[in-house]
Amino acid sequence: LGELEVTQNDTEITVTITGNTLTTPYSGSEQSVTGFDYTVSGGSATKADVIVALKENKTAQAVGTNASKYMMGLNATFFTVSSSKYSKVTITTVNDGYLEITPLAVTLTSGSGSKEYDGEPLTNATVEATGEGASRFVQEVNDFKATGSVIGTADMTTAQSETNTISYKWKDGFSTSDYTITTNPGTLTIT
Fold it and tell me: Which of these, 69, 28, 56, lies nearest to 178 by C-alpha position?
């Protein structure tokens, strides 16, 4: 039988590697994105002609919990490239992958009220959170309340008003950075 000798094509082939990306809303739990894709160019090469793999102990992964952008940190040294068809295969571009966790929108609203002067303070404890992040927000704070108060005086000649201030304290491990907070405090008025 005769021998068949396979000679690799010496056309220069370039590889562009792109890490996967994910943009997702804050969930309060760890989230991640993994993996990468690649394209090849040069001659008549196709993706099937080139194998791109991560080196041992290298990962294409971004992990995070809080609202922020987490990069994979990819670069050409993370990968090996090979081809049985082409002898000159080079990684020319690595586009880093990332996980972007976006803040949740929440609107905080406190109640309003008015009454005639009677010597007693006017308060309104009504407070609510609405929006896509409302249920998570109320789980991550303590002392969520409206604290406004107005009392007026017996000899006042014009109405007296105060803002019904909204207050809360973050539980350990949680913060404002995970939310886009809009505050709509009510008004308390003594006439």
Answer: 28
Report phi then psi at 135, rounded to 5. Answer: -65, -40
User: Which of 99, 62, 59, 97 lies closest to 79 in space, CA to CA?
Assistant: 59
Say which amino acid occupies 137.
Answer: F
Q: What is the pLDDT of residues 28-72, one digit of tens each?
A: 999 999 999 999 999 899 999 999 999 999 999 999 999 999 999
Q: Which two tokens stand for residue 43?
A: 């001659």
Q: What distance in Å separates the CA atoms of residue 138 and residue 136, rounded to the nearest whole number?
A: 6
Rg of the chain taking only CA atoms, in angstroms? 30
Q: What three-state secondary structure class fits 47? A: helix
Closest CA to 144 of 159, 161, 128: 128
Return the structure tokens found at 58.
Answer: 């290298």
Helices (H), 21-151: 134-140
The strand ranges marked E within 61-158 are: 61-64, 68-71, 79-82, 86-95, 98-102, 104-110, 113-115, 127-130, 141-146
SS3 for 48? helix
pLDDT at 2 over 90: no
CA 167, distance to chain mean position in Å, is: 25
Q: HSE (CB half, 13 Å, CA atoms) of 111?
A: 12
